[in-house]
Structure prediction request, 814 residues.
Amino acid sequence: MKKILLVHIFLCFCSFVAVAQVPSPAQAQQMKVENLTDEQVRQIVEEMKKNKVQLDQMDQFAAAKGIPSGEVIKLKDRIKSLNLDKELVQTAPTSQVAADRSLNDGTTVSARDIQPMTEAERLRSRIYGAELFNNKNLTFEPNLRVPTPPNYKLAAGDEVVIDVYGYSEVQHALKVTPEGYIRIPNLGPVYISGLTMEEARNRISKQLATIYGGIKSGNTFVQVSLGNIRSIRVLLIGEVVRPGSYTLTSLSTIANALYVSGGPGENGSFRDIQVIRNGSPIVTFDLYDFLRSGDLQNNIVLQDQDIVKVNPYQSRVELSGEIKRPAIFEVKQGETLKDVIDMAGGYTDISYKDVIRAYRLNNKEREIVTITAAEVPAFTLRSGDKFFIDAVLNRFSNRVMISGAVRHPGEYALEQNMSIKDLIQKAAGLKEDASLNRAIVFRLQEDLTPSSSSFKLEDVVSGKEVISLRREDSVVIYSKSSLREEYQVKVSGEVNNPGFFKYSDSLHVEDLILMAGGFRDAASFKRVEVSRRIRSKDYAPGDSAVTIVAQFDVTSDLAAMSGYFLEPFDEVSVRRSPSYETQANVSIEGEVVYPGNYTIQSSREKISDLLRRAGGLRTEAYPEGAYLMRRTFNNASDSALLNEKMQIYYNKVDTGIEEASVRTEATRRQQLLGINLNQIIKAPGSRYDLFLEEGDIIKIPKQLQTVQLFGEVFFPKKVRFASASNFREYIRSAGGFTSKAMKKGSYVVYPNGEVKSTRKVLFFNSFPKIKPGTEIYVPARGPRKGFSTQEAVGLTTGVASIALIIFTILNRNN
Prediction:
C-alpha cells in the first residue's frame, strides 16, 4: 500500500496541468525509488507520456515541487535500465520541424511561437503593460536564496532549523505540523504557527532554556532559521488569461501569481487587481505604479487560500503618432490627457504639440475633437478615445539655398531684407571661374508651383541690381567650365601611355608626349602629326575640309620645342619608324639536324635558307611529307571576320552545329600550307621556295608507311602502304565503296597538305596516285530527289514531242 501511495505521488508530480493536485514537499521528500517495482516504473513512464513530460524536463519540475534530486537521478537510471527512455523522446511533426528556425543569439523559435496572432492577442499586445507577461526573458519567480523576510509568518508545512551551539551543541530540522506545532526532542511540542521568525526564535529559546542551562547564563546560543518553505494554494479569478488554482511557494507575491497565470486578459484591468483574504479585500495592486516608478509597495506576499481577482477595466484610451511609446493605456477617474502622455514617455522630437486630434465615440456616432496645447493638462478622458499626435511639417520656414561656383554652397537662414548679394557674401564669395553673364534663381510661387528667373550676376555683385530673396529660393551660379564640353587632347601611336589627357592652356606637342610617358622604342621622331577640328567657320558651298593636319619633327629628348601649341580636342599621332623591326621567329621541327626556333635574319629569307641553318635533313627524313603551318590571321577578330564572310557567301548563317563544325574545319585548313621540299632542295630560290614569315612552323616527318581511309567505305581504317597498289586496291582493302559513296568526289590529302581529287576521263574516273602517308576521303552522295507528278508529266510530254518531231522529219524525207 505504501508503494502504491508513492507511485500516486510521483504521477501527480509529472502532471503539467495547472489544476492538478500536486504533492506537498513533505510527501515528495518521502519518495524512495528503490522501493518501486518495474511495473510501477512503467506506469510512471506511461503517465509522463500522457502529460507530455520529457526525460530532460524531470529535473526542473522536481526542483520546483520539492522532490529530492537524488531520487530523480535514481528514477532516471531505472527508466534507462528498462529501455523506457526512448519512449519519452517527443518528436515534433515534420511540418513543425521545418518551421522551426534559429535566431542569431542561438535560441530556437518553434513554429508554435510564430503562429499568426488572433485579433484578441493582437489587441492585448498593444495594451500598455502587457509586454511584462509576453516577454520570455522576464520572470517574477521569487528568489529562495535570500534571507527570510522579517514579516514572514510561519505556518504548517514550513521547515524550521534549530541550531544550538556553545557549551551544548545540537541541531534539529523540524516540520510545522498542521496543528501549528514543532516537536523538539526531549522537550515536546512548541506552538509557532502565525509567528514571525524573530518571535519564533524567542519562544523556542525560552523552551530550550529549560533543558540547556547555558542559554540563560550566556554560554549557549540558539539560532533559528527557515529551511524548506511550504507551498500555498492561490486562486486567480476574473479577467486573467488562464484563471484557476495555482500552487506557489509561500514567498510568492501578487506579481508572481499574475505571471504564472499569463497576466490580465483582453478585458482585464492592470490597475485594479485585488487580493481577497478570508472573504474581504485587503489590498489593491496597481501594475502601472511599478511600470512608471518601480513601486511595488502593494505587491504583498500571498498566503494560503488567497484569492487574486483581476477586475474588468473601466476606461481605456489609445495614443498613436509621434509619441515615444504608442499604446493603449488604462486610465483611472480624474486622470487627464497630460497623465497619459507622461505614461507614454512624452512627445517625440518631431511631434506637433500645438494641436492633438482625438476620435471619440458618442452614443450614436463618432466625432473628432481638437485639443490645443493649453487644454491638454485638464482634458477629461472618455473610454474609447483615440488620440493622434501629428509630426511637424517637413519644410523650412526660413531656408534659402545657393549652389554652383561659390566657395561654400549650401543652405542658409533667410534674414530680413536679404538679397542675393548678401547670400553670396554668406557663402564666402564667388569662385574665380564663376560665369558673370548669367545666373538663375529658382523659387516657389504662392501656390507652390515652381518658377525661375535669370539675372546678370555681374550687376548683382556690383550692386547695380538688387534682388530680394524669398523662403525656399535656390540660387544657382554656373562656372565657365561647366558650360562647355570638357577639354581633352589625345595622343596615339608609339608612346608608352596613349589615350586622352586633360587640356591645359599653352600645351605643346612635346608636353603631351611627356604626359603620355615618352616615346616607345619603335617611335619615329619625324612626321609627328596633329589633327585639329575646324571650329567657328562659316559655311561655304564646295568646301569639304573637315580637319586641319600639321606635320613636323621632334627631338628624341623632347628638349627643343617645336613651337606648336595644342588646342582642345587635338589628336597627336606618333608614327612607327619605317626601319624598325622586332625579332621575328620561325620554327623547324622533325627530321633536321638542328631543330628548334630560329630568328629571321632578313625580310627575304626563304625556306632553303632556314633548312641550311638547321644543318639539312637527316637520312630518315621524308621530304615529300613536309608541310608549313602559317598564321593566316594575326588576331581572333580577323578570323571572326573571315568566318562571317564565309557564312554570308555560302548563305549558311544559323544552319546548325554540323555545318558550323565544317566551317571551323575549313578555317583550320587555311593554316596548313603545302610545300614541295624536294623542289626547294633541288632549286633554292625557285617559285617553290617561299619567303618566311613570323610564326611559321615547318614540320618534316619520318618516312611514312601507312595509308588512312575515311568516309563511305565499309571499314575505314589505316592500312600498310604498298607501292604496287593503286587507289581502287586500297578501297577494296577497306571493304569497297558503300551504296552512299560518291566515287567521283573522292580525293586524297598528301602528308604535305596537298590535295588531289578524282578526275573524269571520258566516262571513267581517274583516281589520284597514292603516296606513303596519304589520307583517302570518300564523301557521301547528297539525298536523291525524286520526280514530282508535274515534273514527270512535263518530262513525258517533252520526250513525246521530240519523238513526234523526229517521226515527222523522217516521213517528209521519204
User: Anything to note?
Assistant: Residues 8 and 44 are 9 Å apart (CA to CA).
